[in-house]
Amino acid sequence: MSPLHAVAIFAAGVAAGTINTVVGSGTLITFPTLLAFGYAPVVANVSNTIGLVPGALSGAAGYRRELEGQRYRVLTLAVVATCGGTVGAVLLLVLPSSAFKAIVPFFIGVALILIVVQKRLNKLLGDRRRGQGEGIGPAALIGSFCSSIYGGYFGAAQGILMLSILGLTIDDKLQRLNAIKVITTGTTNLVAGIVFVFAARIAWAPAGLVAGGSLLGGVLGSRFGRLLPPNALRGLIVIVGVVAIIRLV
Questions:
Q1: What is the rounded distance in angstroms from the CA atom of residue 249 to the CA atom of residue 245?
Q2: Which of 130, 167, 133 is nearest to 147 (CA)?
Q3: What DSSP letter does each residue of 57-87 carry, written as one string?
Q4: Would the pTM of this model clear 0.85, i.e. be above it?
Q5: Are the C-beta atoms of residues 161 and 97 closer than 8 Å to each other?
Q6: Any idea what DSSP says for residue 135?
Q7: Helices marked H in the chain
């Protein structure tokens, strides 16, 4: 690996860590970067998954204020993410990659629609649980589990999908839900990465560079993302999601 390649991979890690913390979909930066430098798709995917874990840790630390009063939610959804991420990682190892990637743009599109119509749907559903409690229902658990399976398998725009699910199933401020998203997606990457360590080939040099970059990006993302008003955050989510669909298609 040349110094230029190393710098490029590290920079991609910084960008991915930032975007994952603010919105989600950082994989669409690091994964194509690793492919461009000649790594096989599965190797690039598993190395990228491991590399993005530190970014979730630093991002969660930056969102610690928004995580206050959500211990039950965080612990519950972390367990769900552990189960879903494990299933997704196993699917990546046993199924052909084309089977799932073919419908990735569909999942991202659905997530964007849910983000846009979230407020209206909540009103139609008669959801009036305003405040900052710790309530969590079956819909949130099921949706988070499915999102975590997807995240363990590929992960591109998992954050967008997870945030849309949380927004529809938990009535709370968007920034507080975004903090939960950082935890759950990070947990998914962590458990999937553990599976890959024992069962897949990993390119440790690029994984380490992505890890260092994402660690810095998570700090930057938490500082920037926490300042965004809800409408601006939704707008950014839609923009990133549309770009993700275009790149995948």
A1: 6
A2: 167
A3: HHHHHHTHHHHTT-HHHHHHHHHHHHHHHHH
A4: no
A5: no
A6: -
A7: 3-22, 27-36, 41-51, 53-62, 64-67, 71-94, 97-101, 104-116, 118-124, 138-153, 158-169, 174-199, 204-225, 230-248
Burial of residue 166 (number of CB atoms within 10 Å: 0-12, 13-18, 19+): buried
Sequence ranges of the domains in the chain: 3-248
Q: How far apart are CA 9 and CA 208, in angstroms?
A: 10
What is the predicted pLDDT for the residue at 42?
84
Least Cα distance to 171 among 199, 200, 137, 145 occurs for 137
Predicted confidence (pLDDT) per residue in 226-239, tens digit:
676 767 766 766 77
Helix (H, G, I), strand (E, B) or coil at 117: coil
Helix (H/G/I), strand (E/B), else coil: 55? helix
Q: Which two tokens stand for residue 156?
A: 């591109």
Tokens, residue 10: 């590290």
Widest Cα–Cα separation across the chain: 57
